[in-house]
Amino acid sequence: MDSALYLAAARSYATGEQFAVGSSARPNVPPVTPYYLAVAYKIAEIAAPNSGLPGKFLYFNLFGGLAGLAGLLAAFLLAVELGGGRRALVVLLLLSTSSSYYSLSTQPMTEVPYCAISWGALLFLVRLERRGGWGNALAAGILVILAPMTRAIGAALALSALALYARRALGQGVTLKSNSTSLLAALPGALILPGFFLYILRTADAGTFSYVHDLTYRSLLQAPAIVTANASELLAKLPAVVMGRGSLLAAGVLIAAILVVGASVWRQGRGRRLLSLYLLLYVAFLIISVPEVNARYLVPLLPFIYLLAMDGLSVTGEWASGALSRARRWGGNKRARIQAAWGKTAVVAACLVVAANLAGIGSWLSPQFSKDFYKAYEDGYYADYMPLAHALAAGSPTGPVMARQARLLAALTGARAYSPPYLQFSKERPSAEETSRFVRERGIMSVVVDPRNGDSARVLRELVERGSLKWREAASYGTLTVYVREG
Questions:
Q1: Do 90 and 208 fall within a single domain?
Q2: pTM recorded for the entire structure
Q3: Final residue before a domain boundary, out of 368, 401, 432
Q4: CA-based end-to-end distance of the chain
Q5: What is the three-class DSSP state of 209?
Q6: Strands (DSSP E) along 290-449, which ranges?
Q7: What is the pLDDT of residues 170-184, one digit of tens each?
Q8: Distance (Å, rounded) from C-alpha 212 to C-alpha 288?
Q9: What gap in Å lies between CA 461 and CA 472, rounded to an integer?
Q10: Does residue 28 lie in a domain region?
Q11: How far is it, in rounded angstroms, from Cα 143 to Cα 138?
């Protein structure tokens, strides 16, 4: 649960309490979203004192919704710059009815804040390209710095701005008088990227940067297989992010083909080159740096998917009408009617996309109105964790705990919680003695064995049964078994 990690960090920033999630007392969490949510936590403390974390979810969701609205505004203004007012309205309609964007706007995740920041940065960068101005350069610079501090893949945006403006500044001669705005636009990337990558390389702890960190240890022999698998998965997830449901490779290939056609006529005007570089780097980073492509990773690309699809459908219609006219020797009026019919087909396709997404939003909203936070969890996979969370909040067992769902327990209770010391997507697993050493170093006093997660259950059972430390069974909560350290 990534959202639990951000909530645990937000709770810590708001209260000053230390927390531990993953394998470190300081998880390498991108700080922008937790600090943003910490403001919501503070407001909730004033409005609803003494309420637990679930009682503050209204405020977290409200802040998520505000980030979503900011993203819609930034996407609309960016689309106006790139495609004009009519296409910008279509982008706004499709994005505001996107079930993927909506659902992420109601969760404490990083995707929607990153959308607002990255689309805002691109808006000011495009305006800087077209109209110049210190204000555009300064606003773009601030947002470019915030992008990789919100999601690691924001490094693609910082690198794009750095590459374009540094090349321009060097090509024109570095003089403050003639090239000051280009230097100012390149400066944020030059400042943030070295520290960002150094931090990843020096941090081996689990956290949301661990995927990128793990990339540095992957064998070159594995790289082709990883890239091929992720590229195929990315294509399969395209329908899910566009339509709000489904994961089909054939449909993804069709959508990708339309986007490629649209990209072929993507005008290399001011601002377009920057966007092309950013999109290429974003997709490349996604393919090589994550162990598994999730549809939500594509949400920051939605405005560009819509714009490219409109270009692709328009060009396809022109090609089709031209080919039919030449083959059957039709006149200009007949060709115009074919293009008009194709335009109506594109409108029908857009309506189908909106309808599919609205159905997805409806299915998402239904349980939200019928259940409160605890009820939703008690009826689902985390049912057994709720009474355990109540016990931890009451101080039984005491001390740091290790569990596969450490993020959830830390977020709900404020307890110091660690996950077993291995990366989820790595094949390596620690021995019982290595896990015992990990437990001693961090002062862990209890472990939770969840048989539904085979890897963690195996690691923790070996710790209890074969490790050098002594453990006793203290309690059970449904399928969960809690062991307490003796001595």
A1: yes
A2: 0.78
A3: 368
A4: 32
A5: coil
A6: 401-402, 417-418, 446-449
A7: 665 545 444 566 666
A8: 9
A9: 12
A10: no
A11: 9
